[in-house]
Amino acid sequence: MARHGLPRPGCLLAAALLLVSLLQFQWLDFTAWRSADRTSSSSRLVGWRWQPSVRGQLPAMRLGPGGGSDPVNNVSPEMSAAGRKYAQKYEDIMLAGQKVWEEMLKKDEVPKKIYFIGTNGNTGEMVAEALMDSLAYVPAPDGTLFLRRKPGVDYPKLKYYLLNGDKELAARAPKSAVDLYMEDEKKYRELETEVLKEFQNLDTEGQPAGIIVGESAVSIPENVEILKTGLVIWLDVAAEFSWSKTQMRAKAGGGLFIPYEIIRPPVWCIANGWDGDIDDGEAKAEYMATVEKYNEMYEEVADLRLRADTPGIVENQYWGAERLAKAIAEFYGIDTEGASVEEEVLERDLEKFLESARLSKYMQAALDWCDEQGAASIEDIVENTDDFAEALSLKPLEKKRLAKAAESVAAVA
Fold first, then answer.
1. Is residue 217 within 8 Å of residue 196, measured between CB atoms?
2. Element (H, E) at 43
């Protein structure tokens, strides 16, 4: 019999089993995270042959009220309805991109390779990935909407090529990309051009293909000639925005969960003696001047330009993908009925909405805001009334009328 005040043997055994179970769960959870198929936007290299990205599960996103949750997940009917509405909205974005790609394939004169250019820290990889998702989209046979895929169901895979030029260069370099650039810039540029040439000659077998080009690659004439063989999209951001994304913050954020290549400055910064010190005013001035020089080069080379630092696109890269798909269609003369109808519907609804708030004089400014933010419906405005009011520079009484009109829309929805 156990002595008073000490745990019984059975309790000790139960506690030990519980501890082992917890440790095992944590280990399984960790190993599952490590081994999960977190397909990156960069295609695989197998024997120096490009392999397409294969995306089975589209990325989860916050879709506003209710998100994309299924009706069975203990949510209210209102939240479930909101989830279906937003899922349908994203389904329409994806289907529009799919149509653009199908029409591009029919035109022999239209290049099938996309080159994304811009400065470091422009969130370009996320926007590029969203665009490729939409171009390569395959609707679900069971009619399930985008972002509402059911677990356990084998849905069609999205297949496309999306390479990161800097990462592919680093994979081929005999040493780190930074060291190679500092010790032998000529060799660095040769590898950079080699990657672009190989992508240029890649047989994509009818699948969408894009590459994120290193920011300084446009300074080499041979690289520019390669870019001109495809569609060049400039993901433009303000120099200050780019600076904020390329500062060295080794101890900020998620620590070890932040890959080193994301938080280090560009290689040309390091080569010129800047170690990422955010208080180095001289280095910042030089960085700004260099970025402006690159921007002039981007403007000369680019076929299309997207401001990737607008709040709507920073928060949701699929707004950027939608705008790029429409721009590509217009650039190549592709008929997309859905896009024009959507814009007409938005303009009509916006006119009625502003009339109800006695704000009709702000119609053009409101349309400009919708275009910048990627808003496609009145509901998008209702969810962001503060930003909308600030953009239109509304007076206090006008803000009250806007809020009242927004409440009416929300009540009907």
1. yes
2. none
Contacts of 160 (CB under 8 A, 6+ apart): 52, 53, 132, 133, 135, 136, 207, 208, 209, 210
Cα→Cα distances 53→94, 129, 318, 404, Å: 17, 10, 18, 47
Query: Cα separations (Å) of 402 from 51, 287, 367, 392?
Result: 51, 42, 15, 11
Residue range of the domain that includes 58 = 44-334
- Per residue, what are the HEC states of 218-241? HHCHHHHHHHCCCEEEEEECCHHH
Helix (H/G/I), strand (E/B), else coil: 179? helix
Co-location of 372 and 323 in the same domain: no
One domain, residues 310 and 345: no
| Cα–Cα distance measured from residue 308 to residue 391, given in angstroms and rounded to the nearest whole number | 18
Neighbouring C-beta atoms of residue 248, cutoff 10 Å: 16
For residue 405, the tally of other CB atoms under 10 A from its CB is: 22
Rounded to whole angstroms, how far apart are CA atoms 334 and 175?
45
Sequence-distant (6+) residues with CB within 8 A of 374 are 310, 312, 313, 316, 319, 320, 322, 323
Work out how many domains the chain is built from and give that number.
Answer: 2
Distances (CA, A) of 294 to 196, 215, 239: 18, 8, 10
What the block records as the tokens of 93 is 């974005």
pLDDT band (50, 70, 90) for residue 281: confident
How far apart are alpha carbons 90 and 139 in whole angstroms? 12
Tokens representing 155 are 């849905």
Out of 255-259, 268-272, 390-394, least confident range: 255-259
| Residue 103 belongs to domain with CATH number | 3.40.50.300
Residue 403 lies in a domain: yes
Q: Where a domain ends, among 298, 314, 334?
A: 334
What's the mean pLDDT in 184-213? 94
- Distance CA(294)–CA(284), nearest Å, equals 15
Residues 284, 378, single domain; the answer is no
- Domain termination site, one of 312, 334, 356: 334
Residue 156 φ then ψ, to 5°:
-60, 145
Give the closest residue to 263 by CA, choosing from 277, 274, 249.
249
More confident: 284 or 306:
306
337 sits in the region (left: phi over 0; alpha: psi -120 to 50; else beta) called alpha
Amino acid in the structure at residue 373: Q
Distances (CA, A) of 56 to 77, 81, 131, 318: 29, 25, 16, 17
